[in-house]
Amino acid sequence: MRTVTLLIALFGLAGCVQDSNTAVGTLEWDRVELIAELSEPIVEIRHREGDQLAEGEVILRLDPRRSQARLDAAR
């Protein structure tokens, strides 16, 4: 009987232990990789590091002349 009481007490105390691996916070990215579909010179940069952007917002503008010339030649 004494062993059963001791086991119940140990299980009860084990439930009182706090999980030391729990963390609360905010995840922040320090770097995001962007891949362009075209390899063209950049003609305008509209934002700088640290700027907050909305979804779909233009970050920079590429020079379309080379890709336009290739497209025209293919026609």
TrEMBL record:
What PROSITE patterns does its record include?
PROKAR_LIPOPROTEIN
Name the chain's protein. Secretion protein HlyD family protein
Organism taxonomic ancestry:
Bacteria, Pseudomonadati, Pseudomonadota, Gammaproteobacteria, Chromatiales
